[in-house]
Design brief:
396 residues, alpha/beta, Rossmann fold, 2 domains, 7-stranded mixed beta sheet, 4-stranded parallel beta sheet, 12 helices, 33% helix, 20% strand, globular
């Protein structure tokens, strides 16, 4: 009987805990007689690899053993590296695929029309040539949207959700979220000394393009105001609250944390740069814009701090190490049971296997009615009896 082979890849932004998943899948797989192969740089490893070229294969394909992965869980980031490649929307073809025919689609943005290629057939061909029977895809909603595509094409995929935004559908928790909140809270608490020493309004920005979980939960545990993409706040009310907090604080300062996608009534976050493979452009700092409004309207000085990339760096905290290890083992056990189109998840506070989310559903948003006090621009602290540990629910 031929040895079964598992492929593992990580896509999108890195978060702490990814290496723990890789290590657990590798160890369990080897113990059960599987070969395990790492695919480097996310989906790029399956679109750009030229298996006829030994150098290309060595660059993108890494056999995983216990020796290779023995210590990787001690660090953050992803041992396999990552990219934001989308095989369904390639702006250009790798050199070794030039001249080949792939499905094309015209895309127009800001008056500029470009052609994108769908190289899924090449991805499937490479998976077959590599002898991979099951693929473990670790990523956020963008990475998992393509994992869903591969499942529809008939390839066996098990997904593991990761994102510091905690916005993947079908799960209450994604790897990286706890460490991000811990780091955000620590940074804000440290900077209180500076904001307070200068008696200013502290304005912090964190990741959260479409969902405000990171800003909301940071505010929840630090007792500060927040703004999230799911609700356009009233600018005058927010400034009134910040000045009220400042006046009532013996140290004469106040703090607010904003999601990068947060907006107020009549304001839209500005975007810049070229869109990535999933259609996302970089967002200008809403914190800087709010700071200008505070200064213009009240003459108060502000301290602006961008906490984005700092929150995803370094080793995982206890929660992310625990969840990542458990998710890795769950992913392997799903493979052992020959289950496909499944994603590791937490539902009702318990570990579960759920279907890979339908990409059409988009990100999982904050339940504003339950979790956000719109009048006070802060988390809602009431009615938490009987809630799961992460204060949110998804349906089985």
């Amino acid at each position: 009987m031929a040895t079964r082979r598992i492929g593992i890849l990580t896509g999108g932004g890195d978060v702490p805990g990814l290496n723990t998943v890789i290590q657990n899948v590798t160890y369990r797989g080897i113990e059960h007689g599987f070969e395990v192969v790492g695919i480097r740089r996310g989906w790029e490893g399956l679109t750009h690899v030229n298996l006829e070229d030994p150098a290309s294969k060595a660059h993108y394909i890494l056999p995983l053993t216990k020796e290779v992965t023995r210590t990787i869980d001690r660090t953050g980031g992803t041992f396999l590296h990552t990219s934001r490649t989308n095989p369904q929307k390639m702006k250009s073809l790798p050199e070794h695929l030039a001249g080949q025919t792939f499905p094309q689609k015209e895309s127009t943005k800001k008056g500029v029309t470009s052609t994108v290629f769908d190289v899924t057939s090449e991805v499937l061909k490479n998976l077959e040539k590599l002898g991979i029977d099951y693929l473990v895809a670790i990523g956020g909603d963008d990475t998992l949207s393509y994992a869903s595509r591969l499942d529809r094409e008939g390839f066996r995929v098990v997904a593991v959700p990761k994102t510091m935004d905690n916005d993947v559908q079908n799960t209450e928790y994604c790897i990286g979220f706890s460490t991000a909140i811990t780091r955000a809270a620590d940074a804000i608490q440290r900077q209180r000394t500076t904001v307070g020493s200068h008696e200013r309004v502290g304005i912090f920005r964190v990741f959260g393009r479409d969902a405000g979980h990171t800003a909301l939960y940071t505010a929840y545990i630090t007792g500060i105001r927040c703004a999230i993409p799911e609700y356009k706040f009233n600018l005058e009310r927010m400034i009134e609250l910040l000045i009220k907090d400042k006046r009532e604080n013996p140290s004469n300062y106040s703090i607010v944390v904003l999601s990068e996608g947060a907006e107020w009534e009549g304001y839209q976050v500005r975007e810049y740069g070229e869109a990535d493979a999933y259609g996302h452009r970089k967002k200008a700092s809403v914190a800087e814009d709010l700071g200008e409004e505070v200064k213009h309207r009240t003459k108060e000085e502000t301290v602006i701090s961008d906490l984005t990339y700092e929150l995803r760096s370094g080793a995982p905290d206890f929660v992310d190490k625990l969840v990542a290890g458990t998710f890795g083992n769950m992913a392997f056990e799903s493979i052992l049971a020959n289950r496909s189109n499944m994603m590791t998840a937490i539902v009702g506070g318990c570990f579960e296997m759920m279907p890979i989310p339908d990409p059409k559903r988009g990100p999982r948003n904050v339940d504003v009615a339950a979790m956000y006090d719109t009048a006070e621009c802060r988390p809602n602290y009431s009615n938490k009896f009987g809630m799961p540990i992460f204060l949110t629910r998804v349906q089985k």
